[in-house]
Amino acid sequence: MTNRPDYLDVDDPGYESGQDHATFLEQVEAWIEADPEPRDQAELRTLLAEADSPDPRDHELRARARAELRDRFAGTLQFGTAGLRGEMAAGPNRMNRAVVIRAAAGLASFLRDALPGQTPRVVIGYDARHHSHTFALDSAAVFTAAGLEASILPSPLPTPVLAYAVRHLGTDAGVMVTASHNPPADNGYKVYLGGRVVTDSGQGAQIVPPYDAEIAAAIDRAPVAARVPRATDGWTVLGRDLALGYVESVGRLSDGAARDLRIVATPLHGVGGEVLDRVLKDAGFTDVISVAEQFEANPLFPTVAFPNPEEPGAIDLALAYAQDAKADLVIANDPDADRCALAVYDPRVGTYQGAETARSNGWRMLHGDEVGSLLGEEIGRRATPGGAGGTDGAPPFFASSIVSSRLLRKIAESHGLGYSATLTGFKWISRVDGLVYGYEEALGYCVDPQDVRDKDGISAALLLAQLANRLKAEGRTLVDALDDLARAHGLHVTDQLSARFTDLDEIPAAMSRLRAAPPRTLAGSGVSEVLDLSEGLDGLPPTDGVRLLSADGTRVIVRPSGTEPKVKCYLEVIVPVAPDASYDDLTAARAFARTRLDQVRADVAAALGI
């Protein structure tokens, strides 16, 4: 007769019929023995003790511990195109030293196979989250013991600095330890390939298939963490010259104009504060006010619920600074500074209703598509049609993800440039041949693909500050520039509906509901096309998602997030605008578009059951 855990009773939804009590305990004990971190070993032993507490009064404690153990040992944290990302805790389904060590061993094995008879070179960066430095050092120790040449950035630095280092140093791979804008409990492990491993237009970009599957397979073949060799020294800690080289590369984007702009800037407790401050000052922007409460890196992110500029309330403190200081512009980076958010004063959105705040006075954050379009127009007017787009010698191309606004295609065409739509994620955007500019609506912008083949919130911030500065000298604003784009190409207004799930099984269920019964109308306009992106679209690889188009041009794309437990819905309406439309005409058009977006949001929410 088999012994199974009493906490895996048949009426328990977590019961796995193929696993008895002894087998489960052996799995947990084996992991504990192989875990190199004493605190994680103790954490799991505590959970085991709580799960088997004999005290009948500990029913709730036992239930929590048993559920936690089931989840931590339900599988292995999966490595994919986004690398690793998850909550920091002990166990194979969490981010911890044991998981990172095996990931590093797998990556080292992949690189050795890719470069037989050669010495692979890897550079490692890390942010200021809990354990990031430890994970970076563990990676360097594993790479060095495996015969790789490893170097590590000298301090917590933005992700774009690591992406720059991969191309600048010509390394075969790069690792960035960061969870970007995820909650404080999370951490992650991004992988870039370049050097001699990837030599085409994706050199120095994040991984895509089949590299992700090959690295994941190598990780699966790696021994348990305790048996992975780790060196005690032998890697190189890079000096400040690398970071200064990045700052100088961004500085080459400066237009050298006189400055008359007051900027409020916040890194949201991340690692971008000092770097952005240096870049702006070097470019002549000396009237920069930092949000003091958020300037120093802090892994607890104490002033924000989620350290993501897109999340409600995240930049409210910066907006309050801007209101008090009568600033011209607010710049917010996410914690690893690869994203850039912008807020402006827009008299159209002021209101006397409710309490007086910076928002009620007219300060608002620009949508990622608005910023992406502004940058597209700015870069497009300087690009040379028919010229070379980059080191690959291809014609200049703009690129954006399929969930981003369709406006960028029109901007590119108006400047005689090529355009490419890609799957979601900069790992795809950065691989476009001839790329001179790429963006995705989630606040990611690549404005200098020669140096950084990834989204870069620092270089984007500089170009946006320069654009705002030039417009101010002309007596105009970024809102005026957006109106110009609407007059030239029609008013494109976008928004997003997101649903966060605690039960990950609900995500495919929501997608199944949408596929089975898509809405018949969007804001009253009949749905003319329903495309399942898992079957491929316009020659792109299959991806999990659904695209809806209505007769009036309204578009909705629904897809699960690749980095968070969310389903995301990307909404876009287009309103025709006359080339000579007045400010009042555009104000009315924006109000009409907003109403339509709200109706579309309700239709999509109903179809998804959220």
Offer a concise description of the structure.
The protein has 610 residues and is of the alpha/beta class.
Structural commentary:
This protein has 610 residues and is of the alpha/beta class. The chain has four domains: 21-72, no CATH class; 84-238, Alpha-D-Glucose-1,6-Bisphosphate, Chain A, domain 3, CATH 3.40.120.10; 245-481, Alpha-D-Glucose-1,6-Bisphosphate, Chain A, domain 3; 490-608, TATA-Binding Protein (2-Layer Sandwich). The chain is built from 18 helices and 22 strands. It has helices at 21-34, 38-51, 59-72, 97-114, 132-145, 159-169, 211-221, 240-251, 273-282, 292-295, 316-325, 368-380, 407-414, 426-429, 457-473, 478-489, 506-516, 583-608, and strands at 84-87, 121-126, 149-152, 173-177, 186-193, 205-206, 236-237, 263-266, 288-290, 329-333, 340-345, 363-365, 397-401, 418-422, 435-440, 444-446, 491-500, 521-522, 525-532, 546-550, 555-560, 566-575. The strands form four sheets. Strands 1, 2, 3, 4, 5, 6 and 7 form a seven-stranded mixed beta sheet that branches. A hairpin with an 8-residue loop joins strand 4 and strand 5 (186-193). The chain starts with 20 loop residues before the first helix and ends with a helix. The relative contact order is 0.08. The model is unreliable at 1-18 (pLDDT under 50).
